[in-house]
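Justification of resources, computational component.

The compute hours requested in this renewal are based largely on the per-chain cost of generating structure records like the one below. Each record pairs the submitted sequence with a full structure-token output. That output is archived, and it is also reused by downstream analysis tasks.
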Amino acid sequence: MSEKPVPITANATPFDVERSLGVVEDMLAEARKLGATSAEAGVSVEAGLSVNVRLGEVDTLEHNRDKGLGITVYVGKRKGSASTSDFSPKAIRETVRAACDIARFTEEDTYAGLAEAELMASEIPDLDLYHPWNLSAEQAIALARDCEASGRESDPRISNSEGASVSSHDGLRVYGNSHGFRGHYLSSRHSLSCTLIGQDGAGMQRDYWYTVSRKPDELESAEVVGRKAAKRTVARLGARRLGTCEVPVIFQAEVARGLLGHLLRALSGGSLYRKASFLLDHLGKQIFPANVQIDERPHLPGSLGSAPFDNEGVATRAREIVHQGILQGYVLDSYAARRLGMQTTGNAGGVHNLFISHDEVTFDDLCRHMGTGLIVTEVMGQGINIVTGDYSRGASGFWVENGEVQYPVEEITLASTLQDIFSGVQAIADDMDRRGNICTGSWLINQMTVAGE
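The structure output for this chain reads:
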């Protein structure tokens, strides 16, 4: 079995950028004509290919090309929104009229309106986000088959497969508003994944691996993805349950990402102005140990979370959210900012490349430092209360003694609070997982309750 080379195109675009910009202009002009005092409009166009192969046979093959436009108008402090996938002049007029009709019948909202004009992005930097992959259906199928076969052949304990998938998508985003802001950028996202099932005398287990990038030549090879999926799967065979205990816990990097996701929920404007966050009124307060820094880097070239402006046209910028463990800022769009008497942080639509600092230690160093405790490789369930910070989730992973993995564990529950988890971070490893908008290494937490038998 050999990996088949896949050609990569130059940065030519199949999208009609000028047409999309013209649609935005037409919507804003129609809104003015119908009496809107301000308006914002956006166009998105996406095209892609997705293939899923299971046991060597094609399970699904999808080509997609989707487009949509939306407009939000303000009549004074009344807001109305409408959208359509029809780009015809008649549909544009009808969509804008629908938004204006809605606005005239909604209640006034003092905080409604566009983001402030002076915050609009004045320059649109080239962030190297667009790298199309000239991938035919046949090539995608061959890659998926190679990926799955590599995993299935790498260990005799791999008994079945949930399939391997290849996905390649490109997109265009255009945004404009009545401040005069007009911006657009192209982006791409490609991925390869595999999920396998292993079996021994004790039962069956499943696990997966995936690779994702804006650049197809930066993806891990099909063989590597398949082998990693197989290795992770067989490592879980023979899993045991634990007795209830209180021990140190390591969250592997891909699971630790979820902890930062909970932090962002607690720092989001919607949670804060509704007074539904355990971090309400925590600006300037210590929430992590002093060696922890968390920052946002929206202009990293080629990164999955990079963007030149947010969903309101506000310029994105690098900033610290946590410095020396102290909370420096929230995650706000313009509406939430007004509700809180603050200024938008350029996060309409979410954060852009969130990074947490790491110590000069490897994952193995974390295990040795922990001594005896639990490595968490998967969490499940929805036991997170952002209002109180209570944390309770099902989990599986590996039991560690004397710094070395002893056996896999399953059917356990982790219990603590997010406050104690954040303040209890003892070290963060250098095994940075960059496969997403939130980038982190593995975390060692000083103590959590592990509920088992």
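Confidence is low (pLDDT under 50) at residues 1-12. The chain has two domains: 17-234, 239-453.
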